[in-house]
Adenine deaminase (Aquimarina amphilecti), 326 residues
Amino acid sequence: VSIEKFIENIPKTELHLHIEGTFEPELMFEIAKRNQKKIPFNSVAELKSAYKFNNLQEFLDIYYAGANVLIKEQDFYDLTWAYLTKVHEQNVVHVEIFFDPQTHTDRGVSFDTVIKGIHSALEDGKERLGITYKLIMSFLRHLDEASAFKTLEQSLPYKDWISGVGLDSSEVGNPPSKFEEVFKKSRKEGFLTVAHAGEEGPATYIWEALELLQVTRIDHGNRCLEDNKLVKQLASSQMPLTLCPLSNLELKVVSNLKEHPIVKMMAENLLVTVNSDDPAYFGGYMNENYIGIANALDLSKEQIAELVKNSFIASWLPKQEKEKRI
Ligand code: ADE
Ligand code: ZN
């Protein structure tokens, strides 16, 4: 079979996905209309033409604006359900997804509304599509630590629905050290931790995520390659990196997929995984990300299979579940 068919057919898991980043323009217009919210674009085509980014911040500005039309529990359900049906068609069997509570609570939408909608779609996805899941609550790093603490408080009644906490949004100038205390409290409450680090920010942010936040995975981590000692540390500990090739291309973290560091990282024995990040904005879900790097970097089926296996290893599935699926 062709490499494309091989990628499409192999059962996959996704570990770095922002549910707000799956908001397709068609659904955005539909939900805006029923909530009588205005979008500053006249059509789906006009909105899509605004998806041209020079850096992370230009993307985030549009991503937060899009999320503004999400108001009701049903909106969060529909958003999550659309993602699940989409990745089901792509043979994704397990997902560990982020949501950004503060993007919604700061607009007056309650934490309950957001999590109930997302959780019920995830439960339906498990039952009807056979997709298992973990949910990760991500703190916005451009806001202060007090706001993250407040969010942590709000999440406690829903602790059983949330497996971990993460850290996302504008990276440069907002190092992991800013959130050391709230991550400490989160771990005490039983949450696993991850953090975006080394996407635009320096390798020192990756060190901080490891040492101060005690993460179980690094989201992105591209810039680890600037620090040999860090590469050695990540390799020897088999610390997973959740890479997002099309995101890196669209946010100009790499100038061309042929320059994507994934092969170099595999050669360094790093535990790298392929993910979509914000597929509605970056032009592709899981299969498109795998196919993009496979073609640009001339990857073999064995290399693809290894990447897929890495994702199951890096997942938070219990050990026996992992072994069944590898
Ligand atoms: N929020 C959504 N996508 C993100 C990314 N790639 N980096 C940081 N924050 C994000
Ligand atoms: Zn991300």
The first helix runs from residue 3 to 9. The pocket of zinc ion (ligand 2) is lined by residues 16, 18, 168, 196, 219, 277 (CB under 6 Å). Residues 28 and 66 are 7 Å apart (CA to CA).
